[in-house]
From TrEMBL:
Residues 564-574 have a biased composition (Basic and acidic residues). Residues 445-839 form the Solute-binding protein family domain. Signal peptide: none annotated. Residues 276-290, 365-383 have a biased composition (Low complexity). The lineage of its organism: Bacteria, Bacillati, Actinomycetota, Actinomycetes, Kitasatosporales. It holds the Pfam family SBP_bac_5. Coiled coil: none annotated. This is ABC transporter substrate-binding protein. Residues 11-218 form the Peptidase C14 caspase domain. NCBIfam families: caspase_w_EACC1. Residues 243-298, 356-383, 556-583 are annotated as: Disordered.
Length: 929
């Protein structure tokens, strides 16, 4: 029976040479190392501790490699894995294989590492099982001198009892790294298989199943076919956990093994609900499809070039695995010595690389009625490019959402999930809200319950609104200024109405002197004096200090009106009283919700909501596999959480010509970055921090995080949707260099900080997000090149915020680099930057200014920007703050992130909006009949 190794008794050594003095460079090798290290250390795979996974990058001598392998071989008692990627050298007369080092020279095999010597060190260890992955070529020129017999000799060197050999191609021709794809034909299919698993297959994937899958996938594409060799029963060894495995009786039946490739119907792990500073789950790039702005290919791995090996390979046995099923999974390797020979060399253009074009039509054939701004009916990324897909004014039908999670609360004052904020506009209105427009235009504030935006007086401290006529509750009674005041006052009672944002409370009553409507003991029951209601249609807010973002705070659901007579306190979330075009119908918590038309809503009083569907339903199901199948089959129109596809659902959608035209990849407003806490020496020195910024390979980081679709390389700390962001601002030449590091400047900064030979520190990263570990390892690899050595501490994800939010813990643990993400609740510099950069926000616990940036000039600029009423002038102040942050090198910005989201074929009026973290704007949606 196949088993996986014990991680505590297992060691891995990953060796890679990407830079050569005399041979072709292979830049992707560095990315290979970080990606494989992340996979091995991921909890779902082996779960190796980072200190048990040694990375040797760009070795100059054989001794450097052999010592690392020897140490690991002595420590490992269960399994030892050794991986090499780079050029392979062959001595043409004896056929002896040498592994390329940085100084290796063509036709001088003695300048490399003899494979036989490496093999002996591996076999001399204590491990019961040895695993070796050789990702190398024999070099295109050398192949000209090799006969089939000499190639056989090379192969024979790596064959011992218990060995399983899997080679990329069966003959002496070159194998391929197709242009436009992110890795080779052979390795691309191997990685996709390991990510997707085999529906209906065993819990653990053995090597013969892997071979059959890869063979079938390559044959289906007309690409060079792999070869396998094994001794004894090595083919039954476990290579990985089957990501698509389900217990008997769970999920849909698998297709027959000899069936043609079929897209999977399984959805990967969804993103956790939105919270301040939280981010969507990481995604991998989508496959390109014809049409507007094609999405990148899947998966986002580096490109290298496999080579040919002699002798034909047999067809997969009927008991092998079914081709074409893809789901994200990390590596788990077990058994005796496994050798995969995949060549790394120069990609060759061949006619089959062109492939077949994808159909861009999709299935949406509904005809839109006349609208002011008609848009395309389909096309990859069409809804994320500023247009409106399937523009229509046709009413009717049922808009169907499906969601893995229920709302944190349907009570507008208690919700903090971004998707609930978006959805709540169906039944909750505010004085002002975000414009129903695509992209960045959607971040503009427009009047909703109010006739117009606020009249601001008293130096920005008084906001006065007049309510529209005809605004009504679901019982037909008018919505009054007193209703709005009462709804906002509920925020103050955090004992009963907890969970939502408290921005309005902090702006109006920073000392929290008011106790909330349920504990108001004042004799006149005037409630919060900071809000005045001179009449039923007039409401006045009096701030103790001017705050130019106050209207953004009023645009959150927490500022929705609540009718006092209908307030059921903590039970209000079960049935909020509607001020919008829909009201609550049946609601079964954790199962389903139905919104029906509010017949008392006056369309003439609402310039925001189209209210086209007759009803809106939400199905709540934790079964991700069923959810994905239901979405793609058209049973539902949209994922309510809308954070983006992941795992096998993403792979299926991107690989299908029917599904891929309905994918969009918008920016989601999230910044992936690293904080460099100045309390941790030597990061207290600005030049040491700048050395980190110059040495970081951000393009490599992007690949480790998931590739181009994951986001754009970030040269600074302000995402494009935030006022003050400047696309031309590139303080460290990050964009100019296309994300590649500047080693010379990094070394100069090290010299300036007195650490010319480098220094050591620790990278902190959460352990429940595999891509974060990959990012950390990518940083580790690039920093090592300039002498900055790092250890990676994978902190329990459930307690990560607690750990990095405590400066004393950060200092004690020596976390000189902390990888995390941040997103704004509303798109302003105050909301995005201030928690990260204002020294007055540094707290002993719950601290977001992890870098401990303490700059009085920055603090003063925040005060100026916040008091400013003109968004353009405030943006100028935030641009200055952004520059000060860059100058301080307190943070290492990495990626302005993106999501990949799905729109059903029936949807009309579809566009993404920056105000909803790049998701679709729900209030405009309709469905075709």
């Amino acid at each position: 029976m196949a088993v996986l190794p014990d991680p505590a008794a297992t060691r891995a050594v990953l060796i890679g040479t990407s830079g050569y003095a005399h041979l072709e460079q292979i830049p992707a090798v560095a990315t290979n190392l970080s990606a494989l290290a992340a996979a091995l250390c991921a909890p779902g795979s082996w779960g190796l501790a980072p200190e048990h996974c040694t990375v040797v990058e760009d070795p100059a001598t054989a001794v450097e490699v052999l010592e690392a392998v020897r140490t690991a071989a002595e420590e490992a008692t269960d399994t030892l894995l050794v991986y090499f990627a780079g050029h392979g050298l062959v001595e043409p007369r004896r056929g002896e294989l040498f592994l390329g080092l940085t100084g290796s020279i063509q036709h001088r095999s003695y300048t490399g590492l003899p494979y036989g010597t490496l093999r002996d060190v591996v076999l001399d260890g204590r491990a019961a099982r040895q695993v070796m992955l050789l990702d190398c070529c024999f070099s295109g020129r050398v192949l000209g001198f090799m006969s089939a017999a000499s190639a056989e000799a090379v192969i024979d060197q790596v064959e011992i009892e218990g060995t399983y050999l899997l080679a990329s191609v069966p003959d002496t021709s070159f194998a391929l790294a197709p242009p436009g794809e992110h890795h080779t034909a052979f390795t691309g299919e191997l990685l996709r298989l390991l990510r997707q698993g085999v529906p209906g297959g065993p819990e653990l994937l053995d090597l013969d199943t892997v071979y059959a899958q890869v063979y079938a996938a390559l044959r289906a594409k007309g690409r060079p076919l792999p070869q396998k060799r094994d001794r004894n029963t090595a083919g039954g060894l476990a290579l990985a956990r089957n990501a698509a495995w389900a217990p008997p009786g769970f999920g849909p039946p698998p297709p027959p093994y000899d069936h043609e490739p079929t897209p999977p119907t399984f959805m990967g792990t969804p993103t956790p609900p939105y919270e301040p500073g939280a981010a969507p789950a990481d995604h991998e790039p989508a496959a390109s499809a014809p049409g507007p702005a094609p999405l990148p290919a899947v998966p986002p791995m580096p490109t290298w070039s496999p080579m040919a090996l002699p002798s034909p390979a047999p067809l997969p046995a009927p008991g092998g695995a079914s081709p074409g099923h893809r789901r994200a999974v990390t590596y788990g390797l077990a058994g005796a010595l496994f050798v995969a020979l995949v060549a790394a060399g120069i990609p060759l253009a061949m006619s089959w690389m062109k492939g077949s074009s994808e159909d861009d039509s999709g299935h949406n054939t509904s005809k839109s009625s006349s609208t002011p701004k008609p848009g395309p009916t389909s096309g990859a990324n069409a809804a994320a490019e500023g247009g409106v897909v399937n523009a229509s004014t046709e009413p009717g039908g049922t808009l169907k959402f499906i969601s893995k999670n229920d709302a944190d609360s349907w009570d507008p004052q208690r919700s903090y999930f971004g998707f609930v904020w978006n959805f709540s506009r169906y039944y909750a209105r505010q004085l002002v809200t975000y414009a129903p427009k695509p992209g960045k235009d959607g971040t503009a504030l427009v009047p909703d319950l109010a006739e117009k935006k606020a009249e601001v007086t008293d130096g920005g401290r008084t906001y006065t609104y007049t309510l529209r006529k005809g605004i009504t509750w679901e019982d037909g009674s008018p919505i009054t200024a007193q209703d709005i005041k009462y709804g906002i006052e509920r925020i103050w009672d955090q004992d009963k109405i907890s969970g939502g944002p408290v921005y309005v409370q902090q702006a109006l009553d920073p000392g929290h002197t008011y106790k909330g409507p349920y504990e108001d003991t004042s004799e006149d029951k005037l409630g919060l004096t900071a809000i005045e209601t001179p009449g039923p249609r007039t409401i006045v807010f009096k701030l103790p200090k001017a705050n130019g973002d106050f209207e953004h705070m009023l645009a959150t659901p927490s500022a929705s009106p609540v009718k006092k007579s209908k307030d059921t306190k903590d039970k209000y979330q079960e049935r909020p009283f509607s001020s919008g075009p829909y009201k609550f119908g049946p609601y079964r918590p954790g199962t389903s919700l139905e919104l029906v038309r509010n017949t008392k809503w006056n369309r003439s009083s609402d310039p925001i909501r189209t209210a086209l569907p007759n009803q809106i339903t939400v199905k709540i199901s934790s079964d991700e596999q069923t959810n994905a199948k239901a979405l793609f089959s058209g049973d539902y129109d949209l994922d309510l959480q809308s954070w983006g596809l992941t795992g096998s659902a993403l792979a299926q959608a991107t690989s299908s010509s029917d599904l891929s035209p309905r994918l969009d990849s918008p920016p989601n407003g999230i910044l992936l970055f690293a904080a460099l806490p100045r309390s941790v020496k030597p990061l207290n020195n600005v030049h040491c921090r700048k050395a980190v910024l110059y040495a970081a390979d951000r393009e490599n980081v992007r690949t480790a995080a998931g590739g181009p679709r994951t986001g754009d390389i970030a040269p600074h700390m302000l995402p494009p949707a935030i006022g003050g962001s400047d696309s031309s601002y590139d303080p460290y030449g990050t964009v100019k260099s296309k994300g590649k590091p500047d080693a010379d400047k990094a070394k100069a900064e090290l010299k300036a900080c007195g650490k010319s030979k480098g220094f050591s520190t620790t990278i902190a990263v959460r352990n429940n997000r595999s891509t974060d570990a990959a990012v950390a390892m990518s940083l580790q690899a690039s920093l090592r090149k300039v002498g900055i050595t790092t250890e990676i501490d994978q902190v329990d994800g459930n307690h990560f915020s607690e750990a990095i939010g405590a400066p004393e813990v950060v200092k004690k643990k020596g976390y000189g680099i902390v990888v995390y993400r941040w997103g704004a609740d509303f798109p302003t510099g105050q909301n995005f930057l201030r928690p990260l950069a204002d020294s007055r926000f540094i707290e002993s616990t719950g601290n977001f200014n992890v870098a401990e940036l303490d700059d009085p000039t920055v603090d003063g600029l925040f005060d100026t920007a916040i008091a400013e009423q003109d968004p353009a002038k405030a943006g100028s102040d935030y641009a200055q703050i952004n520059r000060r942050i860059s100058d301080s090198a307190a943070y290492l910005p990495l990626l302005f992130q993106k999501s990949v989201i799905w729109r059903g074929s029936r949807l009309t009026n579809v566009y993404t909006s920056d105000s909803w973290q790049g998701g679709y704007d729900y209030v405009s949606l309709g469905v075709s009949k």
